[in-house]
Amino acid sequence: MQIPAIPPIHDPELAARLDHRIDDKTKPQGSLGVLERLARQIGLIQRSEHPAVAKPAIVVCAGDHGVTAEGISAYPQSVTWQMVENFLAGGAAINVFARQNGCALHIVDAGVNHEFGKRVDLVDCKVAPGTRNFCEQAAMSDEDCARALEAGMRFVDGLDCDVLGFGEMGIGNTTSAAALMSAFTGIAAADCVGAGTGLDAEGIAHKRDVIERALRLHADAKAPLDVLAAFGGFEIAFIVGAMLRGAQRRMVLLVDGFIVTSALLAAAALQSAVLDYCVFSHCSDEAGHRRMLDYLKARPLMQLDLRLGEGTGSALALPLLRAAVNFLERMATFSSASVNGKNG
Ligand SMILES: O=C(O)c1ccc[n+]([C@@H]2O[C@H](COP(=O)([O-])O)[C@@H](O)[C@H]2O)c1
Ligand SMILES: Cc1cc2nc[nH]c2cc1C
């Protein structure tokens, strides 16, 4: 398997031209704050002084997790496929927010423990009906992990979009994400673990024990792909592949909550320049997410106490991305509006 080469977005000459355009708008310099940094970043990603958010898409990847056998979620595994049906019927939060924001939505079965049959609206990339219990063995074989990564890359090869948002669905996947976080960052499991869909304090303590046990079992997994295979999920590996290919194709990558960011930890361990292409939509209410973002030196756009996943944060961030490219394209300049500039 070929890991995509990703160039950094570094381009001092274009950055200077973007900065000039931004500073020439009728506002005190820097006063549009984060939106100015976004406009500059999107311009550098798209290699354009006139960046656009014209064709946004969100991909929601679903997969099941063998580690649910350890009793680490407040909900049964069957909710994964039932929510996939809900996505396909248009009734989930992500359907509502994607529609509200004029965003294409793609639903992927990367490894759900359910036979959906032939469905035109479901992208069938099922590698297996769920991962193995990573307390007993690696969640994925190396081959299956590579299959999920490649499926993510191939999926993005067929996409026509400029902004690619990520979401996921998978009962048990906050356990997978917390284990990935601890393995990739060296942060203690106790500081990675959280309530997920709604565990109480006792449930969280048990989840921490499960993760610590698995970290001991797979202590030899050091290379990024080995860590991903040991603790990941099919939906997480699919997202890793899709992120790497999306960055290679110079898409803006919209990062959602705790699980999607754990996929980014793996992607960044494989190709650190992928981070240049990322916009962090929000800081999730899942306990470890703030620490994960800090580790990546990431500044999320919003803090809404969301802990849903599905790409809901990605969808809700779209108006801010649009505001960033719109002010750059549509605001008057000091000279066009005859407004005096600084000290002038
Ligand atoms: O995105 C987040 O930050 C987030 C935080 C907590 C839970 N979730 C969602 O909840 C599910 C996993 O929770 P759990 O408790 O089953 O591990 C999965 O479907 C995720 O989309 C998502
Ligand atoms: C109902 C439900 C919806 C979800 N969406 C994402 N994760 C979820 C988990 C549950 C339990």
Automatic annotation (TrEMBL):
<dbReference type="InterPro" id="IPR023195">
    <property type="entry name" value="Nict_dMeBzImd_PRibTrfase_N"/>
</dbReference>
<dbReference type="InterPro" id="IPR003200">
    <property type="entry name" value="Nict_dMeBzImd_PRibTrfase"/>
</dbReference>
<comment type="pathway">
    <text>Nucleoside biosynthesis; alpha-ribazole biosynthesis; alpha-ribazole from 5,6-dimethylbenzimidazole: step 1/2.</text>
</comment>
<feature type="transmembrane region" description="Helical">
    <location>
        <begin position="223"/>
        <end position="244"/>
    </location>
</feature>
<keyword id="KW-0169">Cobalamin biosynthesis</keyword>
<feature type="active site" description="Proton acceptor">
    <location>
        <position position="310"/>
    </location>
</feature>
<keyword id="KW-0808">Transferase</keyword>
<protein>
    <recommendedName>
        <fullName>Nicotinate-nucleotide--dimethylbenzimidazole phosphoribosyltransferase</fullName>
        <ecNumber>2.4.2.21</ecNumber>
    </recommendedName>
</protein>
<keyword id="KW-0812">Transmembrane</keyword>
<dbReference type="GO" id="GO:0008939">
    <property type="term" value="F:nicotinate-nucleotide-dimethylbenzimidazole phosphoribosyltransferase activity"/>
</dbReference>
<dbReference type="InterPro" id="IPR036087">
    <property type="entry name" value="Nict_dMeBzImd_PRibTrfase_sf"/>
</dbReference>
<comment type="function">
    <text>Catalyzes the synthesis of alpha-ribazole-5'-phosphate from nicotinate mononucleotide (NAMN) and 5,6-dimethylbenzimidazole (DMB).</text>
</comment>
<keyword id="KW-0328">Glycosyltransferase</keyword>
<dbReference type="InterPro" id="IPR017846">
    <property type="entry name" value="Nict_dMeBzImd_PRibTrfase_bact"/>
</dbReference>
<dbReference type="Pfam" id="PF02277">
    <property type="entry name" value="DBI_PRT"/>
</dbReference>
<feature type="transmembrane region" description="Helical">
    <location>
        <begin position="251"/>
        <end position="270"/>
    </location>
</feature>
<keyword id="KW-1133">Transmembrane helix</keyword>
<comment type="similarity">
    <text>Belongs to the CobT family.</text>
</comment>
<keyword id="KW-0472">Membrane</keyword>
